[in-house]
Amino acid sequence: MHLNDPWTQQLSRRGLLLAAAAGTIGTFLPKWTPLQIASPDPEVASAAFMYCNLGTGEVIRRGVAVPRSQYVVGGGQIGPGLPNKLQSVLPFGGADIGSNTLPQGLDWHGSSAPKTLLAADGSSIRWRGRNTTSRYSGGVRTRLEVAAPGESILVSFKARITEVVGHREAALMVSLLRTTDSTSTTLERVYTARDQSFERCVVRLTAPPGGTSGWKLVFTGEAGDGAPDQQATFEIRDLMVTAGGAPSPWLGERYAAPPYAPTGYVGGDVVVDPKLASSEFYLVARTLEFGWIGVPVEVSAQSPRISFSEVFGPDACITVAEFYLVARSRWQSGWISKLAGASTWMPMRFTNIDGIAGKSRPESQARLSRASGMVAGHSIPAGTTARSMTPSLDAPPETWAASFDSSRWSYISFRVDKAPFIGETTVPAGVRSEVHVPNCLDYDRPYWFSFAFRVNTTVHDAVYTRKVVLFQTRYTKNASADSSALGPELALEQLPGDRFAVSYRTDDGVPVLAGSGTPAGITTRTLGPWYAPRGRWQNLVIRANYSRSGGGELGVWLNGATLINAAVPLGYNRANGPKVRFGAYKFSDYPATTEFQNFEFGPKELSGRILRPLAV
Hints:
Elements: E1 2-3, H1 42-47, E2 50-53, E3 59-61, E4 64-65, E5 72-73, E6 77-78, E7 82-83, E8 106-109, E9 115-120, E10 124-130, E11 136-142, E12 152-165, E13 171-178, E14 183-184, E15 188-192, E16 199-206, E17 216-222, E18 231-243, H2 253-256, E19 264-265, E20 271-272, E21 279-287, E22 291-299, E23 306-307, H3 308-312, E24 318-327, H4 335-340, E25 349-350, E26 390-391, E27 400-405, E28 408-416, E29 431-436, E30 447-455, E31 467-474, E32 485-486, E33 490-495, E34 499-506, E35 516-517, E36 523-531, E37 538-545, E38 553-558, E39 561-567, E40 579-587, E41 592-602
Parallel strand pairs: 16-25, 32-35
Antiparallel strand pairs: 1-22, 2-3, 2-24, 3-4, 5-20, 6-24, 7-19, 8-11, 9-10, 10-18, 11-17, 12-16, 12-18, 13-14, 13-15, 13-17, 20-23, 21-22, 21-24, 26-29, 27-28, 28-41, 29-40, 30-37, 30-41, 31-33, 31-40, 33-34, 34-36, 37-38, 38-39
């Protein structure tokens, strides 16, 4: 089996959507316990070459029940075996509320902040914290060292913050601590009081290199502001720490964090033998952690079997409950939505979502730091080398995606609600729901972009500068001596009153390494604005050639009409080229909802899309 190469069959929107799963996220069942499924969906099953329920053992091939052992091997758990680094102290025990004694394996953290143990059982702990001289209300830390110098770990847990007294934005932060010299890594804000109770959170932490002493895991409570005597109740459950290894290049970091198990994740694989010489399928699987996922696969004489660990990546830890193999020619639009039913996507939060170990983009109180939209890694556009396409830190639960081949995303939607605290400042805090490609574009090399987009909300702000950035190529800051926060070199923007514009910028080859927005030395030029009513699909094709020396080229075609096609200054003088982002990056007091279809980009020429765009 191998993942399919780019193919040209045109499919309608929302086909293989990464849809919702009903049930609890991240539940680990040491002995497989199937969900109660009466039967496969009759319509989908009748078109499927094969259906398998890994809980009941039912396998239907070409409409006939067959022995599972002849066609499917594996119990449903996918991924490498990963021990829980805290297994020696789990389940928690030895706590005593009367003496304020924590369970074995945990110590109080933050001597100046009063902390009171409220409850503890085998998998959870609940305490009340109060801040005094700083905004931190103390917390708990592991007695065990969970990371060696230079080691990367994945920490997964569920949390809840209740009974907040004071500012409503109480938060939970996580870090690593070397107790031999009280050195701490940067505190990562991972959970706030307004987040969904017991939502699963995954954090990648990397211990600094050097020395011989290990690092302990710390959970710290944080008050909403600096005022003293604020209180909150914090609860953590299902804590699992595993070796992080390298960031997963396939389906993203969140797939690499195994579901909770006190001792460790067993792992495994599911291997399907269709017993065919060759064929092209959709593998449509329901996972307990992420819902329905659709992946195009092929079998051939050279690769006759389908290995789920190969499909989803060797580091992916997921549990498959059932799956269909459907020939591509027999797949019908809307079947994934039909299979998923009316259930709602349950988000899993992730800090440092960009995959940079030990680093996350700074948050403001207006940012919810949720990430739940997913795009399968094999759908990375042709011409790029990265295998990951991940939502940025602020993608809210409404983000979802569908992908059909290796050269485009067929459908993805973004929603950004009105952010808290907006209106207290002259310029609203930016709130984003975007996906981005982590690789930089090259300078002096033409890139083509083609996509259809529509917005379903209006920017009602009276201030003209309020906007929603829908597409951008964002410059890459230099590794050192670069404190700038400049606007993107190229951006598609939604403006007040259902108007749109394309802006592009240059520094004329002279680096501007400080300042925000468009400081002195940055020249901005604008195409438009043009008017389009909300709800209308628009087709955009762009050809961009970025330059660090003040040159460049830009072609922009809107619905077949030429906006520009000329040599123009485009790009900033930086060590590395810009990165691609699209979605909804909102600088507005109002919600934003945006949809994209058939997003393609790369060095391959897409001029044919100008007059013949892909159907929506």
